[in-house]
Amino acid sequence: MDPQLAAISTRWFSVVVSLGAGLALLAYGMYIRLGYTKRYYLRERKGILGPWVYHVLPLMGIVLCLLAVTGLCTDLETRQRLLIYLVTPSFLMTLVVGLTQPWWVKSKWLRRLQENHPDIFRFVRDVAREEVGDDPDKARSWAEAMGTEQGQDEWVAGVRKRRGWPRRELHSAERPSIKVPRQFRRQISEVQGLPPSSKGLEQQIEIYEGILSELDWQKAPAFWASVQNKLGIAYSARRRGDKPENQEKAIAAYQAALEVTEKRELRVDWAMAQNNLGGAYRNRTRGDKADNLERAITAYKSALEVLNRGEFPAHCAGTQSSLGRAYVERVRGERRENLDQAIAAFVNALDVYTEEFPEQRAKVQKQLAEALREREAG
Q1: What's the total number of domains in the chain?
Q2: Which domain CATH number covers 341?
Q3: Could you tell me the residue range of the domain that residue 250 belongs to?
Q4: 20-51 pLDDT, tens per residue?
Q5: pTM for the whole thing?
Q6: Looking at residue 24, what is its pLDDT?
Q7: Are residues 217 and 77 both part of a single domain?
C-alpha cells in the first residue's frame, strides 16, 4: 500500500473517530446537564469516579472535537500551533473544572437541590439510593421529583419527617437567603456539615446558643431571628434530655423569633415561625391541652395569612394539613363545627397535594376520610 495513502487514511480515521467521540460525549453530556436524566446519580460509586464526572463530559467532547479539527490541518506548523494555543488550554480547563467542580458545571436540578437544602445535601444521594434501591418505578418517581423545585421540597420534606430530621427554613423570592455576619460564617458552615443524628442535634443547639449569646439582634435582626427559629426546630427534634423541657425551649425560641420578625416586618420569617410555633403547641405536654390547641390553631391561621397557595403552595398545603389535625384534636367548641373546619382544611391541602405528591396526598386523604366518617356518625 502506498505510504502516503496509508498516512492520509490514518489521519482521516483519527479525525472521524475523534469527531464522533467528541460529538457523542458532547451530546450525552448536555443531555445530562439539561437535566433530562437523573438516575445516574443513584448509581453505585466505583473507585474515584462519582456522578460529578458526567458534568465535564461536554468539555471533554469539545476537546476531542478540537483534536479532530487539528487533525484536518495538513501543515505541521499550523497543527502544532492549534495544539498549543487551542487544544492544550481546553484540556487544562477541563482538568481544572473536573477537579474543582465549580457551581456552574453542575446540572440545574442539582444546583437547586444544593442551594435549597444545603444542610442535608451531602446526605441526599445516600438517602436517595437507600430509599429508591433497584426499583425502576421509584427511580422514575425520584427523577421526576428532582425536576421541579416543589417536587424537590416535597421529597426532602418527606425524608426529614421519616427520619426525624429538623425541617428547613423557608426561603422565598422576598428573601432568597439570609446574609450571615462574617464572624459567624464558620459556625454556620459547621452546622451545615453536621450529620442529622442525635449528636448532630446537640452540636447544633450548642452552636446556635453560642451565636445568640454573642449577637445583638438589632445588628442583624433577620439572621438573629433565623437562628432562633432553627434553635427551636433543633429543640423540637431533640432526642436527649427532658422532652417537655425541650418543647418549652422550642416555644421560647419561636416566640423570640416572632417578636423580632414582627418588629422588622420580616413577613416570611414571621409566618414560618408561626407555623413552627403551631406545631410546638399542638405537641406540647405541659399546660392545659385545650389552651395549647387554641394557641396552635391561632398560630397556623396566622401563618396562612402569608403562606398562601399562590406564592407558597407546598408550605400552604402543609400548614392546612396541620390546621386540620389541630381542629380534629380540638377540645373546645362544637364537635361538628370543629370537624367541618378540619374537613375544609384537608380539602384545601388536597387542592395542592395532587397525584404528583402521592405520599402527602394519601396521608391527607386518610385524615379527611376519618373526619368525614366521624361527622357522619355523629
Answers
A1: 3
A2: 1.25.40.10
A3: 174-377
A4: 888 888 887 777 666 556 776 776 555 455 55
A5: 0.58
A6: 87
A7: no
Could you report the per-residue pLDDT of 342-351, keeping only the tens digit for each? 999 999 999 9
DSSP 40: G
Rounded Cα gap, residues 208 and 316, in angstroms: 28
* Average pLDDT over every residue of 97-101: 73
Q: How far is CA 221 from the centre of its chain?
A: 25
In the 8-state DSSP scheme, what is residue 312? -
Is 166 exposed, middle or buried, given 0-12, 13-18 or 19+ CB atoms closer than 10 A? buried
Task: State the angle between helix axes of 149-163 and 358-377 in degrees (0 to 180), rounded to the nearest 10.
Answer: 70
Whether residues 149 and 101 fall in one domain: no
Q: Which of 83, 105, 127 is the last residue of a domain?
A: 105
Closest alpha carbon to 324 in 298, 301, 299, 343: 343
Contact 235/246 with Cβ under 8 angstroms? yes
Q: pLDDT, tens digit, for every residue of 287-333? A: 999 999 999 999 999 999 998 888 788 889 999 999 999 999 999 99
3-class secondary-structure state, position 49: strand
